[in-house]
TrEMBL record:
Gene3D superfamilies: 1.10.510.40. Residues 184-418 form the Aerobactin siderophore biosynthesis IucA/IucC N-terminal domain. PANTHER family: L-2,3-DIAMINOPROPANOATE--CITRATE LIGASE, STAPHYLOFERRIN B SYNTHASE. Pathway: Siderophore biosynthesis. Pfam families: FhuF, IucA_IucC. InterPro entries: Aerobactin_biosyn_IucA/IucC_N, IucA/IucC-like_C, LucA/IucC-like. This is Siderophore synthetase component. The lineage of its organism: Bacteria, Bacillati, Bacillota, Bacilli, Bacillales. Residues 465-603 form the Aerobactin siderophore biosynthesis IucA/IucC-like C-terminal domain. Belongs to the IucA/IucC family. Transmembrane segments: none annotated.
Length: 651
């Protein structure tokens, strides 16, 4: 029974994300076989067509909110599903509505069935059978397989109970781990295949994902010192074991190195994820293993736990050192290895942000950065930074700021954890926070107050960095709120390797080009000639992915209208712009992009996975950008509609 229930919930979630991605990315637009009917047109059709009336009777109760119905004519069937007008994108599909297929057989009664994600996507692929550029046949097969695995792995995830009450009341380390576990239930919001770790079955998910909360013992690989490159300053002698292990655990590694003649600085012990050690490295570095350049150690030591990103692990102890390790799995369409070049660029980005902090008194007080300069990577003799296989043997030890981890009153709260809720009591982190500020949790104003406090703090820091010519990858997994005694004290950033820059603004503020090392002849998204292009990543990752995920979870869990929260989000943006003390040029760019332009950029998630790939950096996540109407224009139009229209759509 439990498996059936989790399977049903998984299908509902994946279906909602898939249909909405297809709608936002306009997969059903401009096809003669697909009609978008108004409510009046649909009602008229139902009175004339018994088959469509039968479909309507199957629509979920929530479909009363629907403003339109899609009718998609197949060769011998019709697909029908309702949608409602939305602010985030033109139309929104709720899983409770359902997608239905009516098989048409001459002389026989119609056969009605409810479609799942795989069946629906199969019809989308057929719709694009004559457009192999938009939907590459090989890409379509891979995507269908990803959906299949996503359904399974989402169901695995849902077998576990979410951490609910007392996340903020736990000691800091336990609190962060609980928040990471909670974030893991949603992963990348709105992405229909974000949960999938391709190739992992139940045992791997059970052992290595955040939701299951299992301890993970590090494996270790001895790598000949001449083949190790590091981010440490020259002459500084420090090794992963010094940061990640206790004295007793270090002795275990040291004893084995000495016993096997690998000690006295000849080899560096690099931590390896246990799955990576057995499943990927034996083939990836076969030659190095044969030649003794890399030697697996027998000692398994150092206990860590998976965070929501899976390849970043946090320690069992109160240590400030977390570890990021490569994993040879595909997630979000990209291979999750960890290359030396990424680590180098991340170090350059961090250096730039630390210089930026010194130029802004508010950033100096409110922006915190994880130290990501301690890393080690295997590099082959030819020193080719862009070779594929060495990317699978490396490590980055991420150090959390001492002023945060040593303050017993501080809680570190990944913003991604705020996009998740459970239907049970204390299902959202705001519940506990509300109690701490003396609210019973049913007061809408108090919920909106917390929503406001989170977003204003976050937006101000993003805008202060933008005015200096940079924008980090500000999705909810990378951005960690610094929460202290019911107040947001600042923002902690981690994973710096995707810091995007506009060099003229850097230079105007006394900052230098970070001098990223990039693969020649391949596109990059780190440098932007126009500040407007830099801002698109804030709009897509900061609002579309991060802020809207929080907004939607708050709306659904507390019963607040999305329109009211979008209005509050708009207020937060304007307040943050005032607080950020922006020069006229920067304020103008922000105001124009956020409030004046008719369209916003939209981060595509399905089209890039289906599109025929031409030139792409190996292992990178497929990228695509579309457009949607400016949500604040939609909001303004909605506020001018009749009361009835607002209630059916945006109210």
């Amino acid at each position: 029974m439990q498996n059936k229930l989790t399977g049903y919930k998984a299908e509902q979630r994946v279906m909602e994300d898939l249909v909405n991605a297809l709608l936002a990315e306009q997969f059903l637009d401009s096809h003669a076989s697909v009609e978008l009917l108004s409510k009046a047109e649909w009602d008229a059709l139902v009175t004339q067509d018994a088959q469509m009336k039968a479909v309507q009777e199957q629509f979920g109760a929530g479909a009363a909110q629907a403003t339109n119905v899609y009718r998609w004519q197949l060769e011998d069937a019709v697909i029908v599903f309702p949608v409602r007008v939305s602010i985030a994108q033109p139309y929104w599909f709720e899983a409770s509505y359902g997608v239905y297929k009516v098989n048409l057989h001459t002389g026989k009664a119609a056969q009605l069935s409810k479609l799942g994600p795989l069946e629906l996507m199969g019809h989308v692929v057929t719709l694009y059978a004559n457009d192999p550029v938009a939907v590459d046949p090989y890409g379509a097969v891979k995507f269908m397989h990803m959906i299949e695995q996503t359904l399974l792995q989402t169901a695995f995830s849902l077998e576990n109970e979410q951490p609910t009450a007392h996340i903020l009341g736990l000691p800091q380390r336990e609190s962060l781990l609980a928040a990471e576990r909670k974030a893991g239930y949603r992963d990348r919001p709105f992405h229909p295949v974000s949960k999938v770790k391709q190739g992992w079955a139940y045992d791997e998910c059970n052992s290595y994902t955040a939701e299951f909360g299992r301890p993970i013992k590090l494996n270790w690989m001895a790598v000949k010192q001449d083949y190790v490159v590091t981010g440490l300053e020259e002459g500084k002698e420090l090794f992963p074991v010094d940061l990640l292990l206790s004295d007793e655990e270090r002795s275990q590694i040291s004893d084995e190195l000495n016993r096997r003649g690998l000690g006295e600085g000849a080899y560096t012990a690099i931590p390896v994820h246990p799955w990576q050690m057995t499943s990927i490295l034996p083939e990836q570095i076969k030659k190095e293993l044969e030649e003794g350049i890399c030697i697996p150690l027998e000692t398994e030591t150092g206990t860590f736990y998976a965070t929501s990103s899976v390849r970043s692990l946090m320690p069992e102890t109160e240590s400030p050192y977390h570890v990021k390790l490569p994993l040879g799995i595909y997630s979000l369409g990209g291979l999750r290895y960890l290359s030396a070049i990424k680590l180098m660029n991340g170090q350059q980005a961090e250096r730039l942000m630390r210089h930026a902090v010194e130029r802004d008194a508010v950033l100096k007080q409110k922006l915190f950065l994880c130290d990501e300069t301690k890393w080690w990577a295997y590099l082959p003799e030819d020193r080719d930074l862009f070779a594929d296989y060495p990317r699978h043997l490396s490590t980055m030890v991420r150090e959390y700021p001492a002023e945060l981890v040593q303050d017993a009153d501080i809680r570190l709260l990944p913003m991604s954890a705020l996009s998740v809720y459970d239907s049970s009591e204390n299902g959202h982190i705001f519940d506990e926070w509300l109690k701490l500020i003396g609210s019973d949790g049913r007061e809408s104003a108090a919920v909106v107050q917390l929503f406001h406090e989170v977003l204003v703090s976050y937006f101000e820091i993003c805008f202060r960095l933008f005015r200096l010519g940079m924008m980090p990858e500000v999705h909810g997994q990378n951005c960690v709120l610094v929460w202290k005694q019911s107040k947001i004290e600042g923002l902690l950033l981690r994973d710096h390797d995707a810091l995007r820059v506009h060099v003229p603004w850097l230079n105007a503020n006394g900052l230098e080009d970070p001098a990223y090392t990039l693969r020649a002849g391949y596109p990059n998204s780190l440098y932007h000639e126009q500040p407007q292009k830099l801002l698109t990543f804030f709009q897509m990752l900061g609002i579309q992915v991060n802020s809207y995920a929080i907004l939607r979870s708050v709306s659904q869990y507390y019963g607040l209208s999305e329109a009211s929260l979008w209005k509050e989000l708009q207020t937060c943006l304007k307040e943050a712009m005032q607080k950020a003390e922006l020069p006229d040029e920067v304020a103008s760019v922000l105001h124009e992009a956020l409030f004046v332009k008719a369209v916003w950029p939209w981060k595509q998630v399905v089209r890039p996975l289906l599109k025929k790939q031409t030139m792409r950096v190996p292992g990178s996540m497929p990228y695509g950008q579309g457009e949607v109407a400016n949500p604040f224009h939609i909001l303004a139009e909605a506020q001018g509609l009749s009361k009835e229209a607002q209630l059916t759509g945006l109210g």
